[in-house]
């Protein structure tokens, strides 16, 4: 999936988790289908999410900035991570 297409899917998705805690929970509960990580997020956040995704076989898409990811999630602040959830 192309980067732009992935962001559009996130924008259009009604079922999503936004932020590190919600994303980690979705990964552990096996309800995340794709996880998004902002390239400018803190390293410890990126590392935790990448490890969780690798352990659970979940696809990772990278977004340039937290601002772009927050906008794609429909929030007015930046987001370090987000996930599309199974319907």
TrEMBL record:
Any one cellular-component term (Gene Ontology): ribosome
Keywords: Ribonucleoprotein, Ribosomal protein
Xref: Gene3D superfamilies: 3.30.1330.30
Domain Ribosomal protein eL8/eL30/eS12/Gadd45: 17-86
Pfam families: Ribosomal_L7Ae (PF01248)
Metal-binding recorded as keyword: no
InterPro entries (alphabetical): Ribosomal_eL30-like_sf, Ribosomal_eL8/eL30/eS12/Gad45
Protein name: LSU ribosomal protein L7AE
Lineage: Bacteria, Bacillati, Bacillota, Clostridia, Thermoanaerobacterales
